[in-house]
């Protein structure tokens, strides 16, 4: 009997995509009897399935195979996903190792993977490592909104409110446009620090200068903040503003108001 015909990369990708069980998908991928021709898409599919299932040893086995498969230049987004999977598994050192090894995958690291690493370190609360890598930021180009959002959030986790505000001022000086996440993070942090005047000022800036509409969580944080400092009447003023703006009042809003009443 002759050797069986190799299964096409398209067929393998279809098999992997349709298989819901990551363990079975792993077995399909590595089955030596099927003579697969591996494509970047098939590598991406199996690594994503294994990473999401936190099957880290299996994911690393495929990753090593991809590393050695010199036919392929590995796309940066795939390696960003690997970094995020390590973060979800609370393996920050492996996230760092993956970032540092990006060139060995025939890929050039950019701000995209740098931001993925910073976010992974933030997820794992490795603040000193964030500071270390932030000092290398210039190697990957000027920071963007995502970079600042991660660094600002890291500051609030460490109780460094003033430093978070300095980073926001730096954003504006360098014409990096803040987004909903930026303002949501700043307002949340200021409210937790009972700096309500600044929190309301940030909301005003968000609306008037940047034309961004506050979401429910922004109003909820403001509502909790005014309750914490005893300005209970302002909680109902915030509720009225939410209704005027057509925002749906969720259970957190109603629970906050019940505590006031």
What is the gist of this entry?
The protein is mostly helical and about 260 residues long. Helices cover about 65% and strands about 0% of the residues.
Instruction: Report on the biggest sheet.
Output: none
Q: How much helical structure, as a percent, in the residues?
A: 55-70%
What Rg is obtained from the alpha carbons, in whole angstroms? 24 Å
**Helix/strand structural class:** mainly alpha
As residue ranges, the low-confidence spans are none
**What's the quaternary structure here?**
single chain
Total helix count? Answer: 15
Distance between the termini: 83 Å
What does the overall shape look like? elongated
- The share of residues in extended strands comes to under 5%
By DSSP, the count of extended strands is 0
**Helix and strand element order:** HHHHHHHHHHHHHHH
In round numbers, the mean pLDDT is: 93
Could you characterize what this model shows?
This protein is mostly helical and 261 residues long. It is 67% helix and 0% strand. It is built from 15 helices and no strands. Helix 12 runs antiparallel to helix 13. The longest helix has 13 residues, at 40-52. It is elongated and about 75 Å long. The chain starts with 8 loop residues before the first helix and ends with a helix. InterPro entries: Mito_RNA-Proc/Resp, PPR_rpt, TPR-like_helical_dom_sf. This is PPR containing plant-like protein. PPR repeats lie at residues 144-178, 215-249. Belongs to the PPR family. P subfamily. Keywords: Repeat.
């Amino acid at each position: 009997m002759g050797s069986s015909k190799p299964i096409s990369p398209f067929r393998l990708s279809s098999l992997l995509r349709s298989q819901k069980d990551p363990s079975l998908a792993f077995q399909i991928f590595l089955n030596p009897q099927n003579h697969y021709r591996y494509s970047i898409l098939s590598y991406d599919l199996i690594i994503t399935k294994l990473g999401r299932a936190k099957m880290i040893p299996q994911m690393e086995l495929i990753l090593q195979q991809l590393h050695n498969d010199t036919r392929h230049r590995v796309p940066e987004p795939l390696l960003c996903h690997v970094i995020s999977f390590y973060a979800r598994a609370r393996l920050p050192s492996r996230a760092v190792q993956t970032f540092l090894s990006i060139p060995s995958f025939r890929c050039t690291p950019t701000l995209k993977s740098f931001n993925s690493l910073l976010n992974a370190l933030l997820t794992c609360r490795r603040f000193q490592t964030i500071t270390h890598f932030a000092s290398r930021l210039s190697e990957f180009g000027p920071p963007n909104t995502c970079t600042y959002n991660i660094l600002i959030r890291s500051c609030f986790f460490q109780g460094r409110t003033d430093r978070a505000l300095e980073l926001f001022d730096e954003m504006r000086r360098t014409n990096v446009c803040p987004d909903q996440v930026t303002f949501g993070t700043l307002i949340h942090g200021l409210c937790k620090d009972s700096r309500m005047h600044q929190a309301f000022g940030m909301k005003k800036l968000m609306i008037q200068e940047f034309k961004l509409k506050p979401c429910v969580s922004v109003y909820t944080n403001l509502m909790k903040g005014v309750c914490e400092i005893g300005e209970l009447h302002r909680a109902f003023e915030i509720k009225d503003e939410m209704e005027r703006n057509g925002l749906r009042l969720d259970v957190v809003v109603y629970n906050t108001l019940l505590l006031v009443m």
